[in-house]
Design goal:
Layout (H helix, E strand, L loop, with lengths): L21 H15 L5 H18 L3 H9 L2 H14 L5 E6 L5 E5 H27 L2 H11 L10 H31 L9 H7 L1 H24 L18 H22 L4 H5 L5
Helix pairs in contact: 1-5, 1-6, 1-10, 2-5, 2-10, 3-5, 4-5, 6-7, 7-9
Length: about 280
């Protein structure tokens, strides 16, 4: 059931994206996510799609691994798209029918465009954000977060604690998914069914999975706490690192390319929205 979800998993490879400084990847990922929410035209979606494909090719991560990250939220994407399709009432009417005296069923071109754009936005957002976990080990990601949050130490914020918690959470996502699959297979071997019946019956059938999963998660947390304690681990500020983060020329190139992509999106939104009519005349 959860075997094809790749969120939080690291894909080992030797690529320019893998070798980037994790701090730069975090900053550029945030910039990409922010830029996604400023997209208004199909031209910008096309530019974003091309940009994402180039990044995936440079990272040498299989396209299937990136698509698996979208699979986990496909129901949410479709649900949000359907809401936009049926509840946006502006624009030219495509189909209209009076169901009851209260409910007026209507589909408009604005609703269709909003539904398509929302679907594209969510898919590009999730696929782009998954690149950072697929190309960065949890340890390097932790070091990057800790380095970026270092100024918060001035206000006594537990930066190292937050970073190590995030690292442990990312590390245990694949483990918990594997544990979930084992529990599901064990319950199926006992005659349990998770794919039949209504929504309430399926939700009730998940209880035999959730209870042992929570027990296993708490057991692993206890074992990890004892392991850290037995090794005298603590979050002292004097801890050293085996590998120190260093920026290279490739980090500057990646920053300039991503900044150029963001600039194109912002210019298209505020100055060149007529490009949609130029590149997609049949849509308008």
């Amino acid at each position: 059931m959860f075997r094809d979800i790749s969120f939080g998993q690291y894909y080992p490879a030797s690529s320019p994206v893998h070798r980037l400084d994790p701090r730069i990847k975090l900053i550029l990922t945030v910039l990409y996510i922010v830029t996604i929410f400023f997209i208004e035209t199909y031209f910008s979606y096309l530019v974003t799609f091309v940009f994402l494909i180039v990044v995936i090719l440079l990272s040498r991560v299989p396209m299937l691994s990136v698509l698996k990250s979208v699979k986990g939220v496909i129901f949410l994407v479709l649900f949000a798209s359907v809401l936009n399709l049926f509840f946006v009432k502006t624009g030219e009417v495509i189909y209209e029918k009076q169901i009851t005296s209260v409910w007026h069923f209507m589909i408009t071109w604005d609703g269709v465009h909003n539904s398509i754009k929302l679907t594209l936005r969510l898919i590009l957002l999730i696929a782009g954000a998954s690149i950072i976990t697929l190309t960065t080990t949890p340890m390097r990601l932790t070091d990057g977060v800790e380095s970026l949050l270092k100024p918060l130490k001035l206000v006594k914020f537990p930066v190292h604690d937050v970073a190590i918690i995030m690292s442990i959470a990312l590390r245990f996502i694949p483990t918990l998914l594997e544990e979930t699959n084992k529990i599901i297979n064990a319950q199926k071997a006992r005659g349990a069914s998770f794919d039949t019946g209504g929504i309430f019956k399926r939700a009730k059938a998940m209880l035999p999975i959730l209870i042992p999963l929570f027990v296993s998660a708490f057991r692993r947390a206890d074992e990890l706490a004892f392991a850290l304690d037995s090794r005298c681990y603590n979050a002292t500020e004097k801890r050293t690192k085996m590998k120190k983060l260093k920026m290279h020329f490739s980090d500057l190139v990646a920053t300039l390319i991503t900044a150029g992509y963001a600039t194109v999106i912002f210019l298209d939104r505020y100055y060149f929205m007529g490009l949609d009519h130029m590149f997609f005349p049949e849509v308008f």
